[in-house]
Design goal:
about 375 residues; mainly alpha; two-stranded antiparallel sheet; 15 helices
């Protein structure tokens, strides 16, 4: 909205201070600051309100870690509402709202946030760990993701030298390699978004465990969006140039700010959990950003921690159905390490370190051409 006001003011006359609005780096920094401010400002009152409304708080799995039943009982959920408030307000305030990539990512974020909120509400009101039907949730996730990818494909701009880029998969390291999927790209893009959403959802099991890796991934993709959306930098690094996608850096800045604000209350011991409201929205947002920037495969590297958490669940379930035995003491894998005797803070901090290393590895692919 402020960018639109800048354009209107620029058309009507010269106001020097408004010239800052034309700098993407300035708006990204302000987006980060604004999102953090919104989340921290609403935090205490919102948490007290959630405690009063939810009573017993988020249901804890009885078959889970024993101490969680004692230590985390009564902690309210739906903290993702705080994250979404900061993220959406900041993006709408500082981003160029004429940019289709911004709206596509916001569609996924808000849609998945609403879906997660419905799931959290069902869990809290029924006091059960089973929320909305998994089949219904998956159908809604796919529908939202397909809509967002369709927006990107139809309305997104493509460079003159690569008109097929919008429906193609780009490969890291190989500078000119493109796999044109045609309209099948819609299914691939939707898979990336849905997979990202559920991967972060699996990871969100300990205080601060998902929040920081999401911020790390958002920082990496904010840089990728800025470089890919800038013709000079994209040509220098031999990346596929995507006109207009740099505006997503403002959104990524808001993700980092909202995460920082939420971490103020979510750091161990957490005063509130983000719930599916936050984890589905943030994971879906990362997937949508990866699709928009044409770095879907790099998401699997930068978000490798989320991939590992998801694979641990898939492997555990498949192996148990086949043999009746378990590979991990408990899945997702962060609970396996808890069962081994690692303290919660040890698991969380070590997983943060892994997330940083994977982000560096993912960013290294920008130069390895």
């Amino acid at each position: 909205m402020l960018y639109w006001l800048y354009e209107q003011a620029a058309a009507g006359g010269h106001i020097p201070i408004l010239n800052l609005m034309k700098y993407l780096t300035f708006r990204t920094g302000m987006s980060l600051f604004t999102a953090q401010l919104v989340v921290v400002a609403m935090g205490s009152r919102f948490i007290r309100w959630m405690q009063a409304k939810q009573g017993k708080g988020q249901p804890i799995r009885k078959e889970g870690i024993e101490r969680h039943i004692l230590e985390k009982a009564g902690t309210p959920t739906m903290g993702g509402v705080m994250i979404l408030a900061g993220l959406l307000v900041s993006t709408l305030l500082w981003a160029d709202l004429s940019n289709v990539y911004v709206w596509a990512v916001l569609l996924v974020t808000a849609g998945y946030g609403l879906l997660g909120f419905t799931d959290d509400y069902a869990k809290v009101t029924k006091q059960t760990t089973a929320g909305v039907s998994s089949r219904l949730r998956l159908v809604m996730e796919i529908a939202i993701a397909l809509t967002a990818v369709l927006l990107i494909v139809i309305f997104g701009k493509t460079p003159p030298d690569a008109p097929q880029l919008s429906m193609s998969v780009a490969f890291p390291i190989f500078k000119s390699a493109l796999l044109n999927l045609g309209w099948f790209y819609l299914a691939f893009g939707a898979f990336v978004i849905v997979g990202g959403a559920n991967a972060v959802n699996f990871t969100d099991g300990l205080d601060g465990l998902a929040t920081v890796p999401v911020m790390i991934a958002a920082a990496a993709f904010g840089l990728i969006a800025y470089l890919v959306g800038n013709f000079v930098f994209a040509r220098y690094l031999q990346l596929h140039f995507v006109p207009g996608v740099g505006e997503i850096a403002v959104f990524c800045g808001a993700m980092i700010g909202a995460g920082l604000g939420f971490l103020w209350y979510n750091a161990p011991p957490a005063k509130i959990f983000m719930g599916d409201t936050g984890s589905l929205a943030l994971g879906g947002a990362l997937g949508a950003v990866a699709v928009a920037t044409k770095h879907e495969i790099v998401l699997a590297i930068i978000g490798g921690l989320f991939v590992a958490e998801t694979l641990s669940v898939i492997i555990q379930v498949a192996y148990f159905k086949r043999t009746g035995k378990r590979i991990f003491l408990m899945a997702p894998i962060h609970h396996h390490f808890e069962k081994l005797g690692w303290s919660e803070s040890t698991v969380v901090i070590r997983f943060w370190i892994v997330a940083v290393m994977l982000a560096i590895l993912g960013l290294a692919t920008l130069k390895l051409r």
